[in-house]
Amino acid sequence: MLRNHQQLRDIRKRCVRAKQELSTNLYHRLKWVMFVESRILEVDSKLVMYHESIKRLQRQLEVISQIHSAPNVYLSAVAEVVRRRTFSQAFLIWANNVASQLCAVHSEEVARRKVFQSQFEGHFLSSLFRGLEDSPPPFATQAPPLFDSELPKLTLDDIEKLRSDLPDLALSISVPDLSQITQFFLNRSITNLKSDMGHPPAASIEERIVEAVSAAGLSSNLDPALLQPADGSQSMSANTTHPISSDRGFESETDTEEFEKVGQSPSEITKDETELRSNLQSQFNKINCAVDQALGDLRCDMGQLRQWVLCERTELEFLLSKLSSVWNEANERLSQEYELRQAAERREVDLENRMKAIVEENEKLRSRVEELESELAAERVTVQEVTTRHKEEIEAITSRYKLYSQSIDRSCHVHEKMEGCEMIERSEHNTVVNRIREEMLAQHMVALENERGKFNCEVEKVKLRADAERQVLFNETVRRIVLDKDRQLDELRAREAELNSELAKQKDIIVQLDTTIRESDPDSLQQRVLELEMEKSRHLAEIQILKGATGTTPPRSVSPSSSVVILNEVASSSSSGSRDVATSPEPSPRKSRSVKDKLTSSTNTLIKSRKVKIDSCNPGDNVLVAWDYDLSAYTIVQESSTLFVLHCESLKLLGLNETSPKRTLYTVGEVVDKEYCRARKRDNRYHVPEGSKFYRVKVKSLPS
Known about the structure:
Blueprint: H1 2-68, H2 70-120, H3 156-165, H4 179-197, H5 205-215, H6 232-240, H7 255-263, H8 266-418, H9 423-515, H10 522-547, E1 564-566, H11 589-598, H12 601-608, E2 622-628, E3 633-636, E4 643-646, H13 650-654, E5 666-679, E6 693-701
Parallel strand pairs: 4-6
Antiparallel strand pairs: 1-5, 2-3, 2-5, 5-6
Helix pairs in contact: 1-8, 2-4, 2-5, 8-9, 9-10
GO biological process, one term: autophagosome assembly
Keywords: Autophagy, Coiled coil
GO cellular component, one term: Atg1/ULK1 kinase complex
């Protein structure tokens, strides 16, 4: 015992030393993790700052690129304005000409049809010619609205001036070629005018177009500047090379301004142009210098930024390599969390099964309600049948009443013929007949009201009875489900609280005993430690079972006489060598490992020192007897797939009790005898499945 006590003290010292080393190691590792996380935060903030600076440089580059492309964009915009003005003027002239001609043709055709229809309408031959009343639909009889009216007044002369003033950018100025489109519009307009007028002079084409537009009433939709005729030289040049090149006339509003421009001296104009050209050239050179300098600075900044990013990337890779160990520990924690999550999922599956049961019960209630509704419908059908039967009876009574009244009328008529002189008797007879008629009518109405009241009462009773039964069934089901659920939750919570309180008490007792471990008797102290560890493992197992919502299986009292059958075929092999029939299957290392984990260190020491055998169960072997929560019985710990159950007669010899709440979880004993048995019934004393085979072992306590 002293040697065992010293071994325990050495093991305790080694455990304390291992805990201290583990805490130191964990401290350094966590410190390194915090350092790495802080470095990652710093790098992240730097990356955000550099990202913002790159975005700012990108915006500046966009501004510089816009400044760099400003001359080309300006020249392309000038060319586009000239192209659009040329196209819009030619298109509007052509469209207005077409609209005026089509409007005249349409109105002439409509007038001719109206004149003919006024002459032909009403004639007897009009039925032979169908469809003469149709009229042509209007097509392109209105001029299109004015567009491109807000464009600047620029012409080809302005483009030529830009080319002469800016020879470096002359190649980038693309003059649009609209001669084909404008020639197409003008040729169509000239052809139409020639066909209308016969032989108009070439110089008066625009004047004829203006007159045609004014005659059609379309001049209000056009720009007044488009309706002003140009001189002969300009119109001829427009028909040959540039159709709409007379836009320079729109720049001056009056003739006096044109005379003032013409009156200026050519030397002044040339001087102004040279000064303007020199100023533009100097500004353009300054802009080019600024752009080149900005691009150089930007390239330098980008090179430095690229080098810094490469350095930071290498540092990040180094930090990521350092994080691999931390990542492994995190994976272990994740595996534990995954196991907890699986337990929660199993709990959710259990709850889902309960919910399915509740839903099935609700479906049954719903089917019961449907049956009641069908019964109610049948009751309604019977009520309708009763109503129809009463109606038939009322109709029969009415028909009998009519026959009776007719017979009375006939008898009265006969009496009148036979007894014409008896006026007094006839008046009395009439009064009697009227009285009988009133009585029959009153009886008929009373019977009808009685039947109607009975029918209404029966209908109301059937409705109330069906509604009451439906509500009672639904309320009873809901109440039963809620009470069952609340009861289970209260039991589980109370059991968990009780086990937690007991576990806290046992921990306090262990701490108190730990302080007095050196002052007590070693033998009694070792026995007390074993008992406390047994109780601790028992409480932990109960808490785990309670958290899994499975609960311990209560002991069931069955008839022990016929639930287990002893097999004689294995009795001869009870005294075999190191391994018998029970140990012939392959051992289950997983089960034995789970059992060993629940044992204390002293018990594991006994197993390792071969004082307690777990690979054989022969008479004379020292074995470990442990409590099995699944079977609610004591079993023999063996590395075998076959079950070894303690015999009921050995409970008193070992001082064990299965029904006590504070039972002993495990003890050591010597094997006396064993029997190979088979469970014949489902409910047996050992709580094993029906048909399963196992060993029933008799064990006695060890000699002191």
